């Protein structure tokens, strides 16, 4: 009697499953922080437009100190009668605008200077980098405090003070990436073809250094939000009564033992936003370094 052999049972190939798992993990590492940032940005910028959110200033003093869950005030009110949720949302607008504007300023000025310095080389490179080294040598936070103090507390002055000190960091990242590209075969081919320097910078260098600058910018977003919060906490950033997460924490510390929620809510949203930016920057760095 003939013996019929059972067909072989397929065995999962670990070598084939590993790349899929890594790809899924990298995708999740980008999707989660992007979803968190979209949620925060959507709440801060869209919620006041579509929901009956009270004004963040000019509250009713008769409603001062309402607890969390009060009718019409989901997170309660502060000692001035202002709605805490409203101040968190409008304060988030301020913090995100500062972070994005400062990093765009640093990217535009510092990224351009670094690319020019790395591409041109020679005396121009030396002069630009020595100037930036002088700026980096000073404690940036101390100088930012001094500049903010001299200019006075306002949204524009906060952006200018933070943007000024973001330029050297972007320039160094841009220059290092440009130097690594300058000797690549496609760059030599572009020079041999007589391509003008401006076209080389725009068509060849800028697209190739964009990943490094974008990753650094995502990490810089969290740093700028924290520094802006510190400036506002010290009274040198966004002036009261205009809300920002930093000055909300500063104002809430006076009654921290009695009403800790005044500090807890803005601190929590500040933590989540900075964490999301850091996770996104690290995920992008890992993804692009693999490529």
From TrEMBL:
It is found in: Cell membrane. Keywords: Cell membrane, Membrane, Transmembrane, Transmembrane helix, Transport. The chain crosses the membrane at residues 28-51, 96-119, 131-148, 154-173, 213-238, 258-281. SUPFAM superfamilies: MetI-like. It is a multi-pass membrane protein. Its main location: membrane. Gene3D superfamilies: MetI-like. This is ABC transporter permease.
